[in-house]
Design brief:
- The chain has helices at about 20-30, 60-75, 90-95, 100-105, 140-150, 160-175, 235-245, and strands spanning about 5-10, 35-40, 55-60, 80-85, 115-125, 130, 135-140, 180-185, 190, 195-200, 205, 210, 225-230, 255-260, 260-265, 270, 275-280, 285-295.
- The strands form two sheets. It has a 16-stranded mixed sheet that branches. Strands 11-12 form a two-stranded antiparallel ribbon.
- The chain has two domains: about 5-115, 3-Layer(aba) Sandwich (Rossmann fold), CATH 3.40.50; about 120-290, Tumour Suppressor Smad4, CATH 2.60.200.40.
- By secondary structure, it is an alpha+beta fold.
- The protein has seven helices and 18 strands.
- It is globular.
- About 25% of the residues lie in helices and about 35% in strands.
Amino acid sequence: MSVDTIVQLLHNPKAGTGKRSKEKLLNALAAEGWSCTYSSVKEDNWQVDPEARIIIIAGGDGTVRKVCDKILDQQLKPVLALLPTGTSNNIAESLEVNGKIKSIIRSWQFGEGKRIRVDSGDLNNASFKSFFIESAGVGLFPEMVKNIGNKKLKKNRSTSEKQEDSLKALYETSIAYAPQYCDLQIDGKDYSGYYVLIEIMNISFIGPNIMLAPQASLNDGLLDVVIGRAEDKEKTISYLYNKLITGKDECPLQIIRGKHIQMKWSDENFHVDDKLVQVNPGSFTEITSRQNTFTFLHYKHK
C-alpha cells in the first residue's frame, strides 16, 4: 500500500455483540501496516471521505449497505474491504470473507490482491426508489421482519442466538402465513399466481445466513428469483424447520434467473435488504440488475 493512499475505516461499534472496539480494530490494522482515518457510522453526520481510495467497513450487512448508499449518492468509486463483525454477514460470506479479523487484514494485498466487481439491484415503485446488494422481496421475509420487530427479545444475546431467533421467527411465520397473489413477469414471461415468498437475490444468502440461491453470482448481470408458490408452503415449512433443527440448508424452491422483473404484490410489505418498506398494495414495482456497481477487495485465502 502506498503511503499516499488514503484509507478510511467506517465502523459500527454496535454490530454483532458490540465487542469490536475502535481501538482494537485500529491496532489490528496498524499491526499489518494500515494507517486509517476513522468514523463511526453511529455518529451523527458521518461521511465517506471522497478522497479515500480504500474504505474498510467493519460491521454487518446493514453497515455495508449504509456505506454503499453514501458511495452511490456521492458517485464515488473506492475499493471496499470488509471486516465482518455483524450477526449474519451475508455479503461477506458471499465474497468468501470470513475467519479471524487478523487473518483477513493480513490477507489484503492492495495492488496485488484480487478485486471483485459486484452488481446491485435497482427498484422503482411509485412509493420509493432504492437499490439492494443482498435481496429484495415479498411474502415470508418482510412478514418475519415485521413479526420479530414486535417481539421482546433478551438483551446481550450472542451472534448465534440472534441468528436462531431470526430463523425461528421465519419458521413460525411460514406456518401462519397465507399465500398472496402476485402479478409477476420475469424477462417478459408470466409467472403470476399465489405465493408465500418471492425473493430477488443478488447474492446467495439472505436473513440469518440462509443460502436461498446457492448458484447466485455477484457479477453476472443476472438476478436469481426464488419463488415459493402456494403449493410449496409445506416444503417451505419443512425446509426452514430442518435448517433450524439440523442446520441443513438445501433450498427446495424454484429459481429463475433474469434481468428484468415486474411485479404487483397484493400486500403492502416489501423488504429491501434488511429494511422493511411499505408500498401501495397492487402497485407496480420494477426491478433490474445494475452491473459492476461496487468494487470489493477479496479475501485471499492462504
